[in-house]
Specification:
heterodimer; A: 78 residues; mainly alpha; 63% helix; 0% strand; elongated; B: 170 residues; Rna Polymerase Sigma Factor, Chain: A; Arc Repressor Mutant, subunit A; 7 helices; globular
Amino acid sequence: MTTEHNDDELEQLVRTHYHATVDGVRVPEDLLRQVLTTTEPQRGRTARWAPVLAFALAGASFLIILGSSRVVEVLFSF
Amino acid sequence: MLLDFETLMNSCAHEIYAYLVARMGNRFDADDVFQSTFFKVRHFLPSFRGDASPTTWVMRIAMNEASSFRRRKGRELPLLTPGDALPSLGTDGVGYDPVQAETVQDIAAGMRHLPGDLRDVLYFYYYKEMSYERIAEYVGKPVGTVKSRLFRAKEELKAFLEAHRDHRTQ
């Protein structure tokens, strides 16, 4: 086991900071109870279709823009 | 390995919460990450194979959750308002060093500017007083990486303190 704890100023300050911030910190009782009794929030049933829907909408938009432009006209003229 | 969720939670909840308070810099975010950590623990507990100790496993989940939370929010709020980090003044006024108090506030500010991976090693090394090997096990990186992260963290803090000292003396 390797541990090198030097007592220089910075290290002392870091320790002081942590002791001021973390010492005596306990999980609030209501938070503990909440985590023990609540189950993980479920994603909606439709959530899995969101990427498919987004892709379909993007494709449809592209086709509409393409159809309304002169590109199709030019392509079919050949 | 069969583990009861409640037993596991009771065995390490306070340790995880203390880490999250230090890591997130405020209790509001620590509460959120604590919840999401234990939702994940509950979800993945049946697949826990016991490769690491249960506390190490939960701590790793907490570290990942803290990182993703920070990425999602893109910010961290301070736990302590200026002055809260001051060492407490004794009734006789002894034990209070205003110069050190000012610097401790700077340290708190400097911590908030450090990336999460550097903050983690500082916490485990200086507060939990863990060995390099134990920290390496926690963060899932080689011992050399832990040492270099510790070095970088101290360098960045020193630079931050220097900059603040210069700013004050101007």
